[in-house]
């Protein structure tokens, strides 16, 4: 039988019914456990938000990155996309996605050359960057170097830079350089070493520091090859965030399409945050080993909510807009705390999501799509060739259509990887149903130590991946090195996220205490 959801409208006092479009085996919506599950999902989501200050810091970092790109000679504006746009917040333990948008988008070869050059410039500035110039979408990956967390007060050295000249300057040259820094870059203090070859400069903002570091390459014919923050570990905002940077605008358009669609259900972001946490811990999010990227789970979540009638289909009317017409930076959208809303429905839909991708979705024939719920692989010509048991990427065992464009974002999953994804959803559903009488324990475990299906490490050759430039052993060794770097980066981001959670909670406690003290003072004043 189909399972029905009873929905109450507080504004109209009306009651309406939504049917899950499949025969569901999970307990009905009026089961006592679902409200507790929904409440725990909300609380889990609220702890995933680093807060407004950290979010707004990403906007400052965007401007600083744009200064670096333009100072390198590229006429590009930098936009934010990905999680910050879709979620409207900076996720704890997450990174930031930036994209450079030019009048004419560079091809893969040109983009690879650009990211290589920019990555070298970032390393010169004391950043931990690496360029994947040969990737399908060339990208720069940058790890945070600052020991300070986003949203926390800046260190007094964060706006200080060190400039080393190729020779000693005379008094007139030091005076003209100081004047240039004060008039053009808002320097507030310029100090010289004894031989006047090193200048330590304090600026009135971190963005002014980045502008000077990237633009002031020489003075009166004297080169300044060494330009760095005084202490990158206490550096500007851009140094406090892990981020990716590319030149493909497809992700920018997709982010705003999905953000607009998800905004129609007040708990869509809560569910998505839970799914992404589960995906990272369960191993489902692991593109390095041929599984899903985080973005794929976002599309899967949107598809599911559209399927059950909680969201409208993604509208592609704006998909033809030029990316330059989109905002440089999104607005901060705090999560709903769930008070007065239907938490039982959210709990029910959480289980229904895992049931859908564990038992209902037809991986053999169907496509996860946000514009057409009945799209088939055959229609996209993504079906597997008859008799083909093994192959090479792209695979079409799991088809997830990009909202903008015709790409399959599940193209790197072969049969074993697809079965792992399906089994992980089955295991998550079983765990939720078995432990649903203790909602907080259940949701904490699903996001921290969920059940994981058996997964055997496989060689690249067994996945159909080969290279004409090196031997299988060399390719495997290179992959293992990249894999170690990938997992180390993820662990570092998780540690970063845990520190951020503690810092955010401390800030909330301090704010609450401050408000209580102010309340007592005002109360005392009113009684005098």
Automatic annotation (TrEMBL):
Gene Ontology molecular function: metal ion binding; RNA uridylyltransferase activity
Keyword Transferase applies: yes
Enzyme Commission identifier(s): 2.7.7.52
GO-annotated cellular components: cytoplasm
Chain ranges of the PAP-associated domain: 345-408
Bilayer-spanning residue ranges: none
Lineage top rank: taxon: Eukaryota
A Pfam family reported for this protein in Swiss-Prot or TrEMBL: PAP_assoc
Catalytic class of the enzyme: transferase
Cofactor(s) demanded: Mn(2+); Mg(2+)
Reaction catalysis annotation: RNA(n) + UTP = RNA(n)-3'-uridine ribonucleotide + diphosphate
Keywords on record: Magnesium, Metal-binding, Transferase
One Gene Ontology biological process: RNA 3'-end processing
Protein name: RNA uridylyltransferase
Source species of the chain: Trypanosoma cruzi
């Amino acid at each position: 039988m189909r399972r029905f959801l009873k929905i109450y409208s507080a504004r109209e006092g009306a009651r309406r019914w939504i049917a899950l479009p499949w025969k569901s085996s999970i307990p009905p919506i009026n089961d006592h456990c679902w409200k507790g599950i929904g409440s725990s999902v909300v609380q889990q989501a609220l702890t995933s938000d680093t807060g407004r200050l950290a979010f707004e810091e990403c906007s400052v970092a965007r401007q600083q990155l744009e200064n670096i790109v333009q100072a390198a000679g590229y006429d590009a504006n930098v936009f934010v996309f990905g999680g910050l746009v879709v979620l409207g917040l900076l996720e704890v333990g997450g990174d930031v996605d930036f994209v450079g948008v030019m009048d004419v988008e560079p091809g893969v070869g040109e983009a690879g050359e650009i990211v290589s050059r920019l990555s070298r410039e970032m390393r010169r500035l004391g950043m931990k960057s690496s360029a994947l110039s040969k990737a399908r979408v060339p990208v720069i990956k940058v790890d945070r170097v600052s020991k300070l967390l986003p949203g926390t007060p800046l260190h007094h050295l964060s706006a200080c830079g060190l400039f080393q000249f190729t020779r000693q300057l005379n008094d007139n040259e030091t005076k003209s350089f100081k004047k240039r820094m004060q008039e053009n870059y808002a320097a507030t203090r310029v100090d010289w070493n004894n031989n006047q070859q090193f200048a330590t400069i304090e600026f009135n903002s971190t963005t002014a520091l980045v502008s000077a570091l990237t633009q002031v390459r020489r003075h009166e014919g004297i080169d300044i090859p060494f330009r760095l923050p005084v202490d990158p570990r206490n550096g500007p905002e851009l140094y406090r965030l892990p981020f990716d940077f590319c030149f493909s605008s497809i992700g920018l358009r997709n982010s705003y399409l999905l953000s607009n669609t998800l905004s129609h259900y007040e708990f869509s972001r809560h569910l998505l945050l839970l799914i992404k946490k589960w995906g990272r811990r369960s191993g489902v999010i692991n593109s390095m080993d041929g599984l899903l990227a985080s973005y794929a789970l976002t599309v899967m979540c949107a598809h599911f909510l559209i399927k059950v009638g909680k969201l409208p289909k993604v509208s592609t009317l704006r998909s033809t807009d030029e990316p330059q017409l989109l905002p440089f930076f999104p607005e901060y959208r705090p999560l709903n705390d769930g008070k007065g809303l239907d938490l039982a429905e959210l709990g029910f839909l959480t289980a229904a999501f895992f049931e859908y991708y564990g038992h209902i979705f037809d991986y053999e024939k169907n496509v996860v799509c946000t514009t057409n719920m009945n799209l088939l692989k055959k229609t996209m010509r993504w079906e597997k060739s008859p008799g083909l048991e093994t192959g090479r990427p792209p695979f079409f065992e799991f088809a997830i259509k990009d909202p903008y464009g015709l790409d399959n974002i599940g193209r790197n999953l072969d049969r074993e990887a697809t079965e792992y994804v399906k089994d992980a959803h089955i295991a998550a559903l079983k765990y939720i149903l078995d432990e649903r009488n203790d909602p907080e324990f259940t949701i904490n475990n699903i996001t921290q130590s969920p059940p994981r299906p058996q997964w055997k490490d496989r060689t690249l050759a067994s996945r159909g991946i080969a290279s004409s430039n090196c031997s299988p052993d060399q390719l495997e060794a290179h992959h293992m090195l990249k894999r170690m770097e990938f997992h180390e980066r993820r662990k570092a981001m998780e540690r970063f996220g845990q520190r951020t959670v503690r810092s955010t909670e401390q800030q909330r406690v301090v704010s609450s205490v401050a408000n209580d003290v102010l309340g007592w003072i005002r109360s005392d004043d009113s009684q005098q």
